[in-house]
Design the sequence.
């Protein structure tokens, strides 16, 4: 069996002698040299005397070449090694197939009609929507200049024709190992990023991520002139849960509370733990009246819920403060949060288990200087992220 794919423009003397008629002008010069290997009757000889390797997790390789005989020979060799193959006959088709099928590796010929291999590599690597796909260029242009151009375009490796299959398979395996390592690093990076954004107990957004999203969402609301609401929630008398039943019971209560908030919120809303037993919800596209209606539904759901923990059950209520933009007194994201937090303080001061809006009659009745000082102290305590207050 031949071990190399001949260079384009090179003909096998034996194969040419066996052909009584000259090849049509449109037939690639490479085809006669491949005839003895690519013809159906000789295909089994591709692996004669060898034992196929175990299927390498069914990796899919896209073969891009405008010469069908080249494609078939490469397909037979790769599939004999357990790979799955796709094919494309030109650069435009390669771009379409790669974006639709997302192969694990692309074996890309350089000299092709319409769009050449170097441009295909450049476009694929520039597409941020695609994952890392290693590209191995196959070229008859064995020069440092063309090699550098291909690698600069984004190709990850190259091999020159005539192709030595042993070398090709080794390079394919190497690039697939690189791909696996990159994917593992990306998985770990995403996992670390998720941990950095998530509250460990409730699995909601943590305060840091909430504040990042708050700035983004508030800025978007102002640019689009859309309403935007902030809801601050605090579980009433939570300290007594920890004092009476222990912190494990308190953790169970907070986890169940988080599940209720997540259930009641929309997909586009952000729900997070702001600190201790205090939670924040960010409601894009929501005017203050709708935010109050939503908050009342949440309050009722908490009041009706029986919290369970190992060894017992209990019930609790929730106090809620609501603020929204646009409003003359709110020009920044920080001002929005403070308005909602001050409204929460009034809800606590006026009997708990209620919803107070920052511009409502109930809130204004408690806006004396003394009440304002108390609201500021409450806001400062919340900013410290300390839970377990008197509630």
Sequence:
């Amino acid at each position: 069996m031949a071990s190399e794919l001949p260079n384009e423009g090179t003909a096998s003397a034996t194969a040419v002698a066996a052909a009584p008629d000259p090849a049509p002008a449109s037939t690639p010069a490479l085809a006669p040299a491949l005839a003895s290997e690519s013809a159906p009757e000789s295909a089994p000889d591709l692996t004669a005397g060898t034992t196929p390797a175990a299927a390498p997790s069914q990796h899919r390789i896209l073969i891009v070449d405008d010469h069908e005989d080249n494609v078939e020979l490469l397909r037979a060799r790769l599939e004999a090694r357990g790979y799955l193959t796709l094919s494309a006959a030109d650069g435009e088709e390669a771009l379409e197939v790669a974006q639709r099928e997302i192969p694990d590796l692309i074996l890309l010929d350089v000299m092709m009609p319409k769009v050449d291999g170097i441009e295909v590599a450049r476009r694929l690597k520039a597409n941020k929507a695609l994952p890392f796909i290693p590209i191995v260029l196959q070229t008859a242009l064995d020069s440092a200049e063309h090699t550098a151009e291909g690698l600069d375009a984004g190709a990850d490796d190259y091999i020159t024709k005539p192709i030595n299959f042993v070398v090709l398979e080794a390079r394919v395996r190497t690039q697939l190992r690189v791909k696996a390592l990159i994917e593992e690093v990306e998985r770990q990076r995403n996992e670390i990023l998720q941990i950095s954004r998530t509250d460990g107990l409730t699995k909601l957004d943590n305060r840091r991520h909430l504040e990042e999203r708050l700035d983004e969402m508030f800025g978007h609301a102002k640019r689009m002139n859309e309403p935007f609401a902030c809801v601050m929630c605090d579980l009433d008398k939570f300290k007594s849960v920890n004092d009476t039943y222990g912190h494990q019971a308190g953790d169970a209560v907070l986890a169940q509370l988080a599940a209720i908030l997540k259930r009641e919120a929309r997909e586009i809303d952000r729900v997070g733990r702001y600190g201790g037993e205090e939670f924040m919800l960010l409601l894009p596209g929501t005017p203050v009246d709708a935010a109050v209606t939503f908050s009342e539904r949440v309050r009722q759901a908490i009041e009706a819920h029986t919290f369970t923990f190992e060894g017992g059950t209990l019930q609790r209520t929730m106090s809620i403060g609501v603020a929204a933009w646009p409003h003359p007194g709110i020009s920044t994201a920080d001002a929005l949060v403070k308005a909602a937090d001050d409204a929460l303080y009034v809800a606590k001061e006026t009997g708990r288990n209620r919803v107070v809006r920052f511009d409502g009659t109930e809130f204004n009745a408690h806006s004396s200087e003394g009440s304002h000082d108390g609201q500021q102290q409450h806001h400062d305590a919340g900013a410290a992220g300390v839970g377990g207050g008197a509630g």
Q: What stands out?
A: Residues 165-197 form the longest helix (33 residues). The CA atoms of residues 4 and 387 lie 71 Å apart.
